[in-house]
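Example record used in the benchmark description.
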Amino acid sequence: MNRVFSPFVKSLLIALLAVSASASAEEKKTAAAPKIDAAKGGALYTDGDNARGLPACVSCHGANGNSTIAVNPKLSAQHQSYIYKQLVNFTTAERNQPVMTTYAKMLTDEEKHNVAAWLSAQAVKPGAAKNKDTIDLGKKIYRGGIAEKNVPACASCHGASGNGIPVQYPRLAGQHQDYTVAQLGLFKSGARKNSAQMTTIAQRMSDDEMKAVADYVAGLK
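Model output (structure tokens):
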């Protein structure tokens, strides 16, 4: 026998089904969310994991993420979501750096989150601009872009003080000049593929312009 429901009952049933579906989706989302343990991330960063042949990150990126090697990036105070994304990208074709690709593939997804969380909470040691002859050019590009080349101001995405925007854009303040120049070069050549926006921008810049803005960024705090 077919049942005939009143409009009110039908509306109530639809509402109940919608609430049930929403609750179910939220439960799945919560269950899928990783349990992040920054302390474990700090231990892995500092000591590595000898059992797996995983070296300590500190050997290349310095104590608390403050690298003293100009070609290796400072990671302290970097946005957690950005660090995690880069570690994931190293395991794909989006970023390919022999050392980091190898080690990123050895980390579990949970470990990537843990290390990223720990690094994001570390205090950064400031850098400094070194080339007084290009500081004005670097400042001009960072703050105002290069209008004739359709290069936007770096500050529009990375912030006036270089602190970036969590999830979307990384912190740049205090970063090593050599590292920043190298990454702009990789974007320009297409070797680094994880930001179409940065590839387009870098391809419009000369080597001198990249060096000038990288030096200026190093001095931001």
